[in-house]
From TrEMBL, chain A:
Enzyme Commission identifier(s): 3.1.3.18
EC class: hydrolase
Source lineage: Eukaryota, Viridiplantae, Streptophyta, Embryophyta, Tracheophyta
Protein species of origin: Vitis rotundifolia (Muscadine grape)
Name of the protein in question: Phosphoglycolate phosphatase
One GO cellular component term noted in the UniProt record for this chain: chloroplast
Alphabetical list of SUPFAM superfamilies matching this protein: HAD-like
Automatic annotation (TrEMBL), chain B:
Enzyme superclass (EC): hydrolase
Stated name of the protein: Phosphoglycolate phosphatase
Cofactor annotation remark: Divalent metal ions. Mg(2+) is the most effective.
Cofactor(s) this protein requires: Mg(2+)
GO cellular component: chloroplast
Binding residues annotated for Mg(2+), in chain numbering: D33, D35, D254
Any one of the GO BP annotations: photorespiration
Pfam family, one: Hydrolase_6
Residues holding substrate: K229
Catalytic activity: 2-phosphoglycolate + H2O = glycolate + phosphate
Molecular function per GO: metal ion binding; phosphoglycolate phosphatase activity
Function: Photorespiratory enzyme that dephosphorylates the 2-phosphoglycolate produced by the RuBisCO oxygenation reaction.
Domain of life: Eukaryota
Species per Swiss-Prot/TrEMBL record: Vitis rotundifolia
Length: 307, 306
């Protein structure tokens, strides 16, 4: 008889928050849709984070949004009145630079960036030379006879993330590097289809820029952001924590929750972002977090019943 | 059968005086891809003009089947004429035309609109077929403001998004197309083709529709209906005009996974030319599963063999 794997248990509504809190040492929070929406803080977040810290929990923030560097995110947290240090933040912009460091990417090679400032800042901090970024958004091409687009043969990696200045020049530059520079890496910060860049609506996400380059190069990228466990392995190693002692809290099933499951952590879905209860419970959905709740401030209100 | 009991894989024949004559005699219509076969960018490939004249003089029908959706059939006819080759509009089957025809045969309601991420050619063909197109090259100038008080609007009456090669691609268009497909109930997602790269200029390859389609596929998490090669959708229109059995047609192209596959899918003979994106090394690589009947360096080799 063929072996069958038990289907993962259906997500349970969070009822005993204290039990969950006591069972883990570290909480990893996604940001968009969990802590904030666009530039607005979600209700009850500051009090919740304070409560968790007072109970000795380590807090880490892992975001796929590569537009800012850790330092720039630190400022965003500060502006919203939250005390979070740079070292507690892991954005996919940081992940891209950390990945290149981890493979000893040669310092004499360059990185072509299709993405925003956050990636450039992290590459610079890590000591890598980059080309491209927002500036190339102003470059135009003319498809006429005799025109040849040159590209730097020293580019050893192309990093692609969300890019509101996306254009044909950058696509061609990245494509030429990947197709023609021997051994050139194709790295994606993340592949999110859509993202809440403003709180009012969804916006085409980094996945679309990555999809464009995958289409022109016919190559799949190495993904450093969620749901890849690269950032999980990195911070577990850095802080010396066991993954079984971690609870991942996020609003997106195919990135946050899958990230937590891939890392064998506990997982909590919040419904304050892109996922609704009906999406979670839809027969088309196969990703079941351990728990779900409406927002993280439920930690404050959901108490064990006292007998 | 080979030693393993598998049917031996047919090996493409290099075109020669002997088989070229046989091919010519058994073919009534030659279907030509354009980029990398007839021209590269705006430059005609050597000997093409004379070869087409020769084939016409032998009574062969000439048809041009291109995945490049940047121009309409009429605009392609103008391009041919400007390069000194007499070709009429109705001998040309472009993927821009295919997209408009797809809407027609599927009874796309005329009160719905079509958002275009692609060139003027698609807009023109849609208009000719009686549909209302939005977007196109104009939207290449539009920018996006990511501020909390700025809401990105989109037309709720858009019932289809057509995506083709677009050198003016930008975030505005990606967002517009994404919202239409994700939020307008029943909105169609149509791709003119999926070519990864193509010879948009004579000196190098450039990202093709496969790139723009890849972007929208990713943001919408949907796969499009593909109307261009290797889909045989365009063949139906070809057959309506030329009542010739496909076994008497020869598809001549430079790309294995579009031109040659199209020809094979439709039951035509196939001839690969090495004047475009495919080299002999790629053809003969063990990972290549698509074997044309014949191959040769360029179209004008016919002049030497016949």
């Amino acid at each position: 008889m063929a072996a069958t794997f038990p289907a993962r248990a259906t997500a349970q509504p969070l009822q005993n928050a204290d039990e969950l809190i006591d069972s883990v040492e570290t909480f990893i929070f996604d940001c968009d849709g969990v802590i904030w929406k666009g530039d607005s803080l979600i209700d009850g977040v500051p009090e919740t984070l304070d409560m968790l810290r007072s109970r000795g929990k380590r807090l880490v923030f892992v975001t796929n949004n590569s537009t800012k560097s850790r330092k720039q995110y630190g400022k965003k947290f500060e502006t919203l009145g939250l005390s979070v240090s740079e070292e507690e933040i892991f954005a996919s912009s940081f992940a891209a630079a950390a990945y290149l460091k981890s493979i000893n990417f040669p310092k004499d090679k360059k990185v072509y960036v299709i993405g925003e400032d956050g990636i450039l800042k992290e590459l610079e901090l890590a000591g890598f030379e980059y080309l491209g970024g927002p500036e190339d958004g102003g470059k135009k091409i003319e498809l006429k006879p005799g025109f040849l687009m040159e590209h730097d043969e020293n580019v050893g990696a192309v990093v692609v993330g969300f890019d509101r200045y996306f254009n044909y020049y950058k696509i061609q530059y990245g494509t030429l590097c990947i197709r023609e520079n021997p051994g050139c890496l194709f790295i994606a910060t993340n592949r999110d289809a859509v993202t809440h860049l403003t709180d009012a609506q969804e916006w085409a996400g980094g996945g679309s820029m990555v999809g464009a380059l995958a289409g022109s190069t016919q190559r799949e990228p190495l993904v450093v952001g969620k749901p890849s466990t690269f950032m999980m392995d990195y911070l577990a190693n850095k802080f010396g924590i066991l993954k079984s002692q971690i609870c991942m809290v996020g609003d997106r099933l195919d990135t946050d929750i899958l990230f937590g499951q891939n890392g064998s952590c506990k997982t909590l879905l919040v419904l304050s972002g892109v996922t609704s209860l009906s999406m979670l419970q839809s027969p088309n959905n196969s990703i079941q977090p351990d728990f779900y709740t409406s927002k993280i401030s439920d930690f404050l209100s959901l108490k064990a019943a006292t007998v | 059968m080979n030693a393993n009991g598998e049917a031996a894989k047919a090996v493409p024949e290099l075109l020669s005086p002997q088989n070229a004559r046989l091919l010519l005699d058994s073919t009534e219509a030659f279907l030509f891809d354009c980029d990398g076969v007839i021209w590269k960018g705006d430059k005609l490939i050597d000997g093409v003009s004379e070869t087409l004249d020769l084939l016409r003089s032998k009574g062969k029908k000439l048809v041009f089947v291109t995945n490049n959706s940047s121009k309409s059939r009429r605009q392609y006819a103008e391009k041919f004429n400007s390069l000194g080759i007499a070709v009429s509009e109705d001998e040309i089957f472009s993927s821009s035309f295919a997209a408009a025809m797809f809407m027609k045969v599927n009874d796309f309601p005329q009160e719905k609109k079509v958002y275009v991420i692609g060139g003027e050619g698609i807009l023109q063909e849609l208009q000719l077929a009686g549909f209302t197109g939005l977007g196109g090259p104009e939207d290449g100038k539009k920018t996006v403001e990511l501020k909390s008080n700025c809401f990105f609007e989109h037309d709720k009456s858009v019932g289809a998004v057509v995506v083709g090669i677009d050198p003016y691609i930008n975030y505005y268009k990606l967002q517009y197309g994404t919202l239409c497909i994700r939020e307008n109930p029943g909105c169609l997602f149509i791709a003119t083709n999926l070519d990864a790269v193509g010879h948009m200029t004579d000196l190098q390859e450039w990202p093709g529709a496969g790139c723009m389609v890849g972007a929208i596929s990713s943001s919408t998490e949907k796969k499009p209906m593909v109307v261009g090669k290797p889909s045989t959708f365009m063949m139906d229109f070809l057959l309506q005009k030329y009542h010739i059995n496909t076994s008497k047609m020869c598809m001549v192209g430079d790309r294995l996974d579009t031109d040659i596959l199209f020809g094979q899918n439709a039951g035509c003979k196939t001839l690969l030319v090495l004047s475009g994106v495919t080299t002999q090394a790629i053809l003969q690589d063990p990972s290549n599963k698509i074997q044309p009947d014949y191959y040769t360096s360029k179209v004008s080799d016919f002049l030497r063999f016949i």
